[in-house]
Prior knowledge:
The chain has about 260 residues and is mainly alpha-helical. The chain has eight helices and two strands, in the order ααββαααααα.
Amino acid sequence: MQEALEAFVAQTQGLAEHFESHTVFSIGGWNISQYTLYMFIILALVLLIVLLGARKLTLIPEGKGGSILEYMYNFVGEGVGRDVIGEGFKEHVPFLATLFTFILICNVVGLIPGAKATTGTISVTWALSLISFVYFNYWGLKKLGVFGYLKSLCPSAVPGPMKPIIWFLEFFSMILRLLTLAVRLYGNMLAGHMVLAVFAIATTTFVQYTFFQMGGLATGATSLIWFFLLLFMYALETLVAFLQAYVFTILTSSYIGMAIHPH
């Protein structure tokens, strides 16, 4: 057992390096990391799903592909857009559905052994956060105008002397959304994949040492506990992959709603 613990510690020491960004190849002066490569693969996959699914969309969905796309679109439109944004939600559903689909596929692909979770790197989540930030501010400015949008940051019921303070706090809070959206998604996905990696290393190490080297049915059966723990964590991370895509989308929806519907 001591040998198993030593082997486990030795393998986990270099775990952080496994999640660092490394250049896979370069195009001119542009270095393509493994995360960037997977991001382009997922972009192509999302585009392929949309194009193939759109060809099969009918008034009454036929086939599994069309039904799944119809369900996802309705889920985002009715369950997120209408409930959170309210009036005028329909024009934002295509953006929200695209955002949800891309993040969900990124998260799910990251669960494939050997694949990289693009949402597990801060550069990708920063880009997604920036897109969301620009989008809801654009619509706020478009609907209310520059002066009206800036004025709407402070609720009208606030007493006069408090308005500058509340406005500044609300403006600062709006800027912080750029950070919180990126860090929340990045932190949850990176932490989840590191936990999966730790349990995978523990499973292979302890099963190898207790089952194959030490021998004995009872010892081997005990080591299988690690395997079932790994399966449980994998199932939990699958749920987190969906929840994080949902949370990012619903937060973006709430920001859109606050931008186009003044306090």
